[in-house]
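Annual report, structural modelling task.

Input specification for the magnesium ion complex:
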Amino acid sequence: SESGSTYYRVVMIGEHGVGKSTLANIFAGVHDSMDSDCDVLAEDTYERTLMVDGESATIILLDMWENKSEDEWIQDNCMQVGDAYLIVYSITDRASFEKASELRIQLRRARQMEDIPIILVGNKSDLVRCREVSVSEGRACAVVFDCKFIETSAAVQHNVRELFEGIVRQVRLRRDSK
Ligand code: GDP
Ligand code: MG
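The model returned the following structure:
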């Protein structure tokens, strides 16, 4: 944005059913009645200001990604508009983990000359008995992707705040090194 570097447009991408919208709802504060800080800008767009390391940051979170081929325009748009990306898979669904790799490649192709902050997110970490992707596989994949990695559980709200703080830090790191 023109007003400075405190607005971050963060786009969630990933296979259907991995928990993107559930994570977005937690971000939006749907589950914490004490906090009405979030503006819902549209059905799938949320805005919220967080304090991260003593500095405020406003995240505009976009949750409009669909994997259907008829939504190609939305996909292309999503690949262009993000300042940062959360590539989400489910630790209970290996196909969604493989999809995450595909999406990373697609994003790299769409934004070739840019060093875009990305966090690879292994969601549903509460479902221990159904795990199909190990923590070390997730971590190794992030090394190959050259991005950060975190496992979250939207269901029990584990690491969700850390995820959104983390993406702000990733954008700042790049901004500060310019
Ligand atoms: P999306 O298609 O990526 O937006 O996925 P949704 O947010 O709609 O979630 C798909 C299903 O997974 C829903 O039934 C959610 O309640 C469930 N879900 C999402 N996150 C978690 C999680 O961390 N743990 C568990 N156990 N279920 C989850
Ligand atoms: Mg959704």
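Helices lie at 20-27, 72-81, 94-110, 135-145, 160-176.
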